[in-house]
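During the second year of the project, the team shifted from modelling isolated chains to modelling whole assemblies. The rationale, set out in the original proposal, was that interfaces cannot be judged from single-chain predictions alone. As a representative example for this report, we include one of the complexes processed in the last quarter. Its constituent sequences, exactly as entered into the pipeline, are reproduced here:
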Amino acid sequence: MSTDEFEDLLRDALRQAADRAPGQARVRAALARPRKRWRWPPIALMAAIATTAAVVVVECLPNGTPSGTVGPAVPVATSTPLLTVLPPAPVRTPVTNFAPTWGDPGWLPSGMVETERYAAVDGSLTRVWSMPKGPTRVTFAVRQSDYLDRPDAERKSDPPAFQEGGQYDLVGGSRVWFATDLNGQLTRMRWRGASNYPVYEVTAQFLPDTRTNMLRVARSIQFRDTRPDDVEVFAAVGLPTELSPTGEVSIFRDTHAKPYLTVTASLDGVGSERVFVGYQVDQPADLVPGWQQIGYFHYRVTNDGPNSREEVAWPVSGRWLVLQHATFETTLVGSPRLIGIAGRMLARPLPDLPWLSG
Amino acid sequence: MPESFEDFVRARTGVLLRYATALTCDPYQAQDIVQDVLLRAQQRWSRISGMDSPEGYVNRMVTNEFLSWNRRRARTDVLASHERMAAYSPPVADPTEAVDERDAVFAGIARLPRKQRAAVVLRFYASRSFAEIADELGCAEATARSHLSRAMATLRDDARMGRTAKEAL
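Output from the structure prediction step:
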């Protein structure tokens, strides 16, 4: 194929992709809704910094052991690396409504290892296995939300896309639905348990004999009534009340095969004011240049037009907590608010995760 | 007189959604990105509307949002009904080789690193020059050319790599 032909093919592919753009209704509706927005007077900056430097509130507990004691806040000197004080404000964990069931596949394609876990705000849980060398991925998820538009769709509608010759595949006695995403890259199958809730899902990417192998994975899953202890890791970071988790709490292996936990949250419930929380082994790579020390915290404002952001990073329990707030302001002068939020974060040591070291 | 935000939304939302969909390879993420960007633009419209090219500025906001950190998890999972997914992916495979080829190329674009993907979309969907791509991505022109060159090499090899990966299993 000549260069011109290949470029024409690219143009056609992208034009067709753009044709799949969603309608404007949701965006227009969101724009029509009233929004609230926070503003801080400059004088509040120094007051908040002074307060936060004196009262730092990260809780460090033994692995997986909840604390039942609450004591007075202890002032922390700016040069002291040890944080032992307790939060002065209500703190909640990102995910409190865990899935009532969980499961382990008894069979997976040879060589696959578990690499990621996600817990969504609604309590859904997802596990991901990947081939160490190659693009193959398989996931298993327990979904708490009924995102099939019609709950009784299985009984009323025509056979779905992948059902051939009127043959219905069953998993645990329930009929299975197959579907593919935009370009056939991702195949998903879903089915319901006996109680019609939650929904179970297996997805596969670049899996040979896709349908056969996905059914084999699904049929091999051994369900448990309670979640395993290692899911507790999802509650290892507590958020102050200004932050509402909006999507998934995620844990996956970092470059050292260590757990790396992330939470995406909205600020004051305003969906567009996103704060990203990372709980990681390494300190931010570029921590020295451009950052300023404010009390115990490292703080940075990056003015980069619509990609402007402010960040706070600080060490906790041998790890680093990082808050990033994308403000999309062209000029930021430094907000005390993110430092105040950082001061009321709750963090616990992450337990060992055998599935991450495999 | 500067355009009102309402007029801008009426005229540009569809265009932005199409661009974002080509960029993300995912209509749901495109919707999220365009919504977030327009919400921000709405708050600062008095300043944006006074710019030489409000369209260009908002388009760049979409590009930056796509490239930005807070989207990196969102693309791993998209919740959608079967009906919706069926609408995007017809049940019956198209028998023509051209469609298969086009779909394979699009799948390859979806797997590109973000900056390379953005460069490809800006070049072959938005028909931008290298200088304009560099400006949009906030990099040197030589870097933009490098992004595109690497992307093209990857896309050309993509079909072969897919077959190799399958055979390896």
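The radius of gyration of chain B is 18 Å. Residues 126 and 154 of chain B are 20 Å apart (CA to CA).
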